[in-house]
Design the sequence.
């Protein structure tokens, strides 16, 4: 089996558990750059009168707010990982800047984003793969993104109660260091824990799926992004700017 970016150990862990955490994905310099950009984007967004949910700062379609976010959407290393877990043809479904503030109760009980699974060329392919780039340390009590390992293989009717919260037997919390990238299959049972710490949970989130999917409503790229004549074939593929066949050359 040929892998583009993952090691065989990582790939087998992904196939078994339905999620993968990769430490030091972003360097200290990149973290400083992204955190500075996130703060500036939020300040500008709020200055326009945008209203945030209680105790959460969120900017949907963050790729509309600068090249820095587009560059992360098509990060070369992550593109290699997506090729390993999805294949050579995929698109960006949604994306956002997300900051969960101290003292906030969970904003998402246990759920899966989709129960759909597919076989393409005899290979099990996720209907969607979501990537969290954490730009600050996440303590154990910091509102962790959490998973039930192996649940991607479970039927809906055998999944534990959604209200289990932090009492979910066998759950794993992503109390990770800044710079960690966490990706998970949309069929993996997951939740956000209460943030009882004094820290913000800061992240940039990108969701990818097979090329036949469209962006979720409200996340469609603007005409400005779609019409940029300097877009590469890879960027056009991710933005859904034009139909694109299975073609590994886009990654060159």
Sequence:
């Amino acid at each position: 089996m040929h892998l583009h970016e993952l090691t065989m150990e990582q790939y087998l862990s992904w196939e078994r558990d339905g999620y993968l955490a990769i430490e030091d994905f972003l360097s200290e310099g990149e973290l400083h750059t992204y955190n500075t950009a996130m703060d500036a984007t939020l300040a500008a967004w709020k200055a326009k009168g945008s209203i945030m949910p209680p105790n959460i700062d969120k900017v949907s379609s963050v790729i509309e707010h600068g090249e820095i976010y587009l560059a992360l959407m098509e990060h070369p290393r992550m593109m290699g990982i997506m090729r390993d877990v999805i294949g050579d043809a995929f698109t960006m479904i949604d994306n956002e800047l997300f900051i969960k503030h101290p003292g906030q109760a969970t904003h998402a009980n246990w759920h899966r984003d989709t129960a759909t699974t597919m076989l393409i060329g005899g290979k099990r392919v996720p209907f969607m793969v979501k990537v969290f780039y954490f730009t600050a340390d996440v303590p154990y009590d910091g509102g962790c993104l959490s998973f039930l390992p192996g649940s991607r293989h479970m039927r809906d009717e055998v999944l534990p109660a959604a209200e289990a919260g932090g009492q979910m037997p066998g759950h794993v919390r992503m109390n990770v260091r800044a710079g960690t990238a966490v990706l998970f299959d949309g069929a993996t049972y997951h939740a956000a824990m209460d943030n009882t710490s004094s820290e913000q949970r800061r992240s940039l989130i990108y969701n990818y799926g097979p090329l036949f999917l469209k962006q979720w409503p409200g996340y469609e790229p603007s005409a400005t992004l779609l019409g940029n004549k300097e877009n590469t074939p890879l960027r056009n593929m991710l933005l859904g700017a034009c139909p694109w066949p299975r073609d590994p050359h886009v990654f060159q």
About this structure: The chain has one domain: 8-244.
